[in-house]
Amino acid sequence: MSRMLVAFFASCLFISAAPGQSADKKPVKAINLDKLNTDKDEDDPHLGSSGLTLYYSSNTNKKFDILVSQRANQNLAWPAGKVLGDYIQSAVDDRPGFVTAETRFPQYFYFATQKDEKTKNFDIYVAVRQDRTAVFTSPTPLNTISSAADELHP
User: Fold this and answer.
1) Backbone conformation region of residue 20, classed left if phi is above 0, alpha if psi is from -120 to 50, else beta
2) pLDDT single digits (tens) 74-88
3) Average pLDDT taken over every residue of the chain
4) Are 73 and 61 in contact (CB under 8 A)?
5) Is 150 inside a domain boundary?
6) N or C: the chain end with fewer CB closer than 10 Å?
7) Range of 42's domain?
């Protein structure tokens, strides 16, 4: 069965409350993100600092790609995600990790990928963009922290 993304970001990230509980102590109900979910796996969600950008991975194309969904304001539903592309998309599995603040540049996007199709080990890479209108640059491996073990969830 496919893993499905669910949202409770507003209650956990923007209000100081216990997990699964809103600030007024009412239980928070998880919401199915039906425009993002497919019959494949969606995994590794990361919410951008503005609450308007959601990065996640999906294997709808027979390998994991990093997708991004963007909305105009926090009251709107998340639209279907699109492959992040830029220079980040590769021929192997790519998994999102962490993106620095969306209002500070340069902005850094840390993610995990395989070196090539033969390598099963994931290593951490970073891509940079200089301003809001720019695309992320070609990824650079973080060789100082890469090891023989998987660094799958940076």
Assistant:
1) left
2) 989 999 999 997 788
3) 84
4) no
5) no
6) N
7) 6-141
